[in-house]
Amino acid sequence: MLRTVVAVLVALFAVQARAQMTGSATLLSDYRFRGASLSDDRPAAQLAFDYDWAASGLYAGGMMSSARLDSRHAVQALIYAGYAHRVRPDFSWETGLRYTRFSGHEAYAYAEAYAGFAFRQLVGRLYYAPSYFHAGYPAWYAELNDSHALSGKWYAFAHAGYLRRGGDVMEYHASRFRSDFRVGIGLDLAPYNVQLSWTTTRGASDAVFGYPSAAGTTRNAWVLSISYAW
Amino acid sequence: MRHTWVIATALCTLGLCVAIHAETQQPSQVLVMLRAAPPHLRAADDYAITYASSPDEAARKRIARELAHQYGLQLVDSWPMPALGVDCFVMRIVSGTSASDIAQALSHDTRVESAQPRQTFHTLAKDDPLYALQPTAKRWHIAELHALTTGKNVAIAEVDSGVDASQPDLDGQIAEQRNFVDDSGYRAELHGTEVAGIIVAREGNGVGIVGVAPQARLLALRACWQLADGSAASACDSFTLAKALQYALEKHVQIINLSLTGPNDRLLQRLLDAALAGHVTVVGAVDDTTADGGFPASYPGVLAVAGEHADVQRSDVWLAPAEDIPTTQPGARWNMVNGSSFAAAEVSGLVALLQELSPDLTLTQLHDALHARSALGFASMRPMTIDACAAVAQVSHRCTCDCGTTRASLGVPRR
Asked: What is the ipTM of this complex?
């Protein structure tokens, strides 16, 4: 996997001559992915980079994050590439592919396609994974994100997501749906960004969706994060 | 009296000279536009930095610093222009190279979307207080028009120098004030306050004047600065004007009033294109000292307005009263003003009256309403004086002012 990541990084650096590159390093009190903790309710560190070829609308990027799966430490590698098109100054759409895998937990590797729109601060996306967390069944995820500038450098944000899996769920005696919500405030102290949010999930448990989270992780959490962008 | 005339003339001449000097000076800064990618998914989207307004801004700032270093420039300022999908960076020229040469070189750099010199503009007030009082409201029958429409809730962006919102005739009439000139506080100035009074001065308050559209929502966007105390002469530049236009677009105003002029400017042209594409009516004052009327009045789609006695040859120019206009000044003061700046302000107010009557009024319908036609129905080949009553009657389909006069203007036989 390391070779794949290095190859992708080399390729991106090779074509970055005319791209706009952004990087960020983030520390979080809990790594929540669609409401599920991928860090076993513990702190995590992330390193992300993004490339934009603004003239063409193409973009690509990746992230490495510490994780804790099945009660064991791991490193997540995530890469993505897509195309975005601005229709009007306040409206654009995008489509792309994203691929995720975890060191020492190759069985959880999966890919998903997505399409979405952005209208002013409102962002909506629909994701489709043929085999969500490599569990052998497809899953759809829809999300809406919004943010609102408050006074000075403060802002508020909110997220709502809805996950639906395919396949048989009889063995779990549970529904195939789950929703997650997140609300919070942020402080933009460029290049630093601090966020405090509260996240919760409703519906089926982590196990129904094949999440590699440890047993006993909570459904609700306060998450504090600080990121540095360059 | 003679003494006052001499002093006023001297002040006026001094003010205009300062403005003209500022405009003819070689630009010492360039504006460099870098493309901003449309919003899209990012690596940490679900986790930490989703909601930052523009996470890739740091990348463009880094490229701007690289460009400044490479071309021997000094990075001064920047401003996002989402209406054009770019960030605009201001760079000062520290070598002796001309701004146009550097802008041309930058334009060929693949990292750069476009580049241009930072140009200077000036307002079009003649600032002569010695003409006899002659209320212009009488010529447009403002009181009678207000029985039908007052421009209620129509948003007008006045891109100008600062407006005194505490002036008794403007108290409560200014929806928002923003300063795009510098980081200091908003400042009340002559030209901006004079133009604002003509558009929205409070009606029936027992003092001063009546604005053409007293119930319109005026956004007082300070993009110009007064050059000397006591003189309305003001200067602006490409960057301050672009910031104000960008803000007006963000606020979805219906009308933009530009009582100013200067050279053709690519960045401002693109912002005007965005405004016109969004069905915003842009009103520009004609500079009758230039053959084409000056920019932005000369730009296609802009309602170009000149004074009734101006010597203009273009047939697509509208004429409105521009002499002896009583209006507001900072503090509890009023004075008579002259210049196409104020004719443009009157037309902006009139457009607000029409847009209250017909919010979906297209630019073509607006032109038809304003454009007086000959008795045979042919469009005029000369600049024509606006008949406000006829325009309101055409849009409202109702009798207004003197019905006979209105019908005559519309080409309908008088009974």
From this structure: 0.87
